[in-house]
Amino acid sequence: MDAVRFYSFISKKPPYAVGHTALAGLAYMVIFLVFGFEIASGFALLSLSSASVIPTIAGGWLLALMDLQAIRYWHHQLMYVIIAFFFIHLYIAWWLDSVEHNGLMGSIFGGYKFVTGKEWE
Predict the structure, then answer these.
(1) What is the pLDDT of residues 74-91, one digit of tens each?
(2) Taking the model in full, what pTM does it have?
(3) Is the distance from CB of 86 to CB of 42 less than 8 angstroms?
(4) Measured between alpha carbons, how far is 5 from 75 in angstroms, rounded to an integer?
(5) Domain parsing of the chain, residue ranges
(6) How far is CA 83 from CA 41, 51, 114, in A?
(7) How far apart are CA 26 and CA 3, in angstroms?
(8) Which residues neighbour 38 within 8 Å (Cβ) at sequence distance 6 or greater?
(9) How many angstroms separate the CA atoms of 13 and 87, rounded?
(10) Above 70 in pLDDT, residue 16?
(11) Following CA atoms 104, 99, 86, 113 in sequence, which dihedral angle do they give, to the nearest 10 degrees?
(12) What crossing angle do the helices spanning 22-47 and 68-100 adopt, rounded to 10°?
């Protein structure tokens, strides 16, 4: 709950976590489900024009569950969700690094992250 208050600018105190918070874990679970649907729906759309059996096995089964136009619609809409997630994730990572001063983004490039005593508790 602290992460929600912090990211919605209600609290100025960042949530204490060495890794990702529970909110980040939930966001990653949702985005992985979105990735899974994007892959399956992409293969379903590809199976319509491909002579190979691989796209049919990988995603053609989705055509039995959903209408073709619904697959196209959700494939297109979820593409925007992935793009939005990318920019939000990038913004939050840089913003959190500037608030916590722990070298989060610098650790991607240099390999060093600063962990304070409070985060070890």
Answers:
(1) 999 999 999 999 999 988
(2) 0.78
(3) no
(4) 32
(5) 19-120
(6) 17, 31, 30
(7) 12
(8) 75, 78, 79, 82
(9) 23
(10) yes
(11) 0
(12) 150
